[in-house]
Design goal:
12 strands, 27% helix, alpha/beta, eight-stranded mixed beta sheet
Length: 428
C-alpha cells in the first residue's frame, strides 16, 4: 500500500489555500433564487445480509450484518413561484459523474439544476445508484478477498468487479481535443484542443473558427504545480491536466451491484447500471405523481428502462416526457416499442462535436410515424444543436459556456410539447 506523506499533503493544502486567499468569492447564480422547499432523500434499495460488510478483525469470528444497497440519492428544490401547470423535472447524469455536473459549471457559473428552478420548475437531481452519495456495495470486494484468502483465488478474483471510470486525459481526448502524436501516451505525447494547428482530425469548414465552448481554461494552480502528485509527470502543457472539471470524475462503482434479467429486452441480461437506477427513477416518478425525466449519455438507456418498468407497473402515464441527451435511444434494448410513446413527448439532442445517432433518429421517426397515422398524439424530435447554430458544444453540454442557452432549448421544447399538469404539484 502506498503511503501519502502528511508533509506532501500539507504542502498541497498550503498551495491551494494560498491560491484561494487571493481570490474574491464568486457568485455562481445569475440572481437570487426564491424557493418554497429544498432537501434530499433516498429512494429504493434492498437489504443484504453478509459476513463481509467490513474486513474482519484478525483472529475474530465472522459476524453477519445487514447493509442496504442499490438505493439512489435525490436532491431537490421547489421554487416558490412555479410556472403554470408544470411537471417536475428529474435530471440524471452520465458515466463517471454525479449530480454535481448539473449544479454548477467548473468555472463557477449557474448550472441547469438552479436554472430550471429559476424558471419555475420543481427540479430533482440524482446520483445514480451505486455512485457518489448513493453509495455502493463494498461487501462484494471483501467477500472476494475472503475467498482468495481461503484458497479459492480464481473464485475470489471473479467476485471482485473492475471499476470503470473516465480518466482525466480520456475526457480530454473524448470531448475536448486530441493526444498527439498518434500512438503516444500521456508520458510521451501532448494534449491539444480541437482547432489547434496540430489537430489531426479537423472539423468541417463551418466549425474551423469556432473555439470549443467548454471551460478548459479553468484550472487549479495547485494541480498545475503538481504539489503532492503521485507518479511521473505527463508531458506537454501541465494546464491540460489540471482542469477543475476533472475533479468531478468518479469511478462507476455501480459495478458492485447485481444485474438482472429482462425477458422483453434484447439482450435479456441487464447490467447493474441499467438495473438499479431505472428501478429507482420509476419509483421517484411514481412518488412525485408524474415527472419529466432528462438523461445524459450513459443514463440515456436508463431512462428507457425506467419507461419499461413504469409500463410493467401500469404507471407509464406518469412519465410526462423523456429527454435523451447524447445517450442511447434504443427501444429493443430496453424492451419498448414506439407505441409506448404515443402519449409521451420524446426529445433526443446531439451537440456540435458529436456524430449523429441513427438509432435516435430511427426511434424519433418510429414515434412520429404513429402520430402521422393518428395512433399517437405526442411529438418526438431529434434536435441537433449545430443545425440551430449553437456551435462548439461538447458532449458535456450542461457545463459548456452556452449551457443556459442549451437549457432554454430544452425548457422551450418541453413547454411546447408537454401537456400541463392542471395544478398537480410535486411531493416528496
Amino acid at each position: 500500500m502506498k503511503v501519502f506523506s502528511s508533509a506532501i499533503l500539507l504542502v498541497a493544502m498550503a498551495v491551494t489555500i494560498s491560491g484561494q486567499s487571493a481570490q474574491k468569492p464568486k457568485r455562481f447564480l445569475t440572481a437570487p433564487l426564491t424557493i418554497e422547499d429544498q432537501g434530499s432523500f433516498f429512494v429504493g434499495g434492498v437489504q443484504k445480509v453478509t459476513y463481509q460488510a467490513a474486513p474482519a478483525p484478525p483472529n475474530q469470528p465472522l459476524t453477519p450484518h445487514q447493509i442496504t444497497i442499490g438505493q439512489m440519492y435525490v436532491q431537490f428544490q421547489i421554487p416558490a413561484k412555479k410556472y403554470p401547470g408544470g411537471w417536475p423535472v428529474i435530471m440524471v447524469h452520465g458515466s463517471s459523474h454525479t449530480a454535481a455536473c448539473l449544479e454548477s459549471t467548473p468555472d463557477g457559473r449557474e448550472g441547469w439544476y438552479p436554472y430550471f428552478v429559476r424558471k419555475g420548475v420543481p427540479s430533482y437531481v440524482v446520483d445514480q445508484a451505486g455512485r457518489g452519495r448513493s453509495g455502493f456495495d463494498e461487501s462484494v470486494i471483501h467477500e472476494g478477498e475472503a475467498k482468495m484468502v481461503a484458497g479459492d483465488v480464481k473464485g475470489g478474483a471473479d467476485m471482485i468487479p473492475g471499476f470503470g471510470r473516465i480518466t482525466d486525459d480520456g475526457a480530454w481526448t473524448a470531448w475536448f481535443g486530441h493526444l498527439v502524436p498518434a500512438n503516444s501516451t500521456i508520458l510521451t505525447g501532448k494534449l491539444i484542443a480541437h482547432g489547434d494547428p496540430a489537430d489531426p482530425n479537423p472539423h468541417p469548414d463551418q466549425y474551423q473558427h469556432v473555439a470549443p465552448l467548454f471551460p478548459i481554461d479553468t484550472v487549479d494552480s495547485a494541480i498545475v504545480s503538481r504539489a503532492g502528485a503521485l507518479g511521473p509527470a505527463p508531458s506537454g502543457s501541465p494546464e491540460t491536466y489540471a482542469l477543475e472539471y476533472y475533479k468531478q470524475l468518479v469511478p462507476n462503482a455501480e459495478v458492485t451491484l447485481p444485474g438482472s434479467i429482462c425477458n422483453t429486452c434484447d439482450p435479456k441480461e441487464i447490467a447493474p447500471a441499467n438495473t438499479w437506477t431505472p428501478q429507482n427513477l420509476a419509483t421517484l416518478v411514481e412518488r412525485l405523481g408524474g415527472a419529466i425525466v432528462v438523461t445524459h449519455s450513459q443514463s440515456g438507456i436508463m431512462g428507457h428502462h425506467m419507461a419499461r418498468i413504469l409500463k410493467e407497473r401500469g404507471h407509464l402515464g406518469l412519465l410526462k416526457g423523456l429527454v435523451t441527451l447524447e445517450g442511447s435511444c434504443s427501444l429493443p434494448n430496453s424492451g419498448l416499442q414506439a407505441a409506448d410513446f404515443d402519449n409521451i413527448p420524446y426529445l433526443a439532442v446531439k451537440g456540435d462535436y458529436t456524430a449523429t445517432s441513427m438509432v435516435c433518429q430511427d426511434t424519433v421517426n418510429a414515434i412520429n410515424a404513429r402520430r402521422a397515422e393518428k395512433q399517437g398524439t405526442a411529438k418526438a424530435e431529434y434536435v441537433k444543436l449545430d443545425d440551430m447554430g449553437i456551435l462548439g458544444v461538447t458532449h458535456m453540454m450542461m457545463l459548456d459556456k452556452k449551457n443556459l442557452e442549451i437549457a432554454d432549448v430544452l425548457y422551450n421544447w418541453l413547454g411546447k410539447n408537454v401537456s400541463a399538469s392542471r395544478g398537480t404539484r410535486s411531493t416528496h
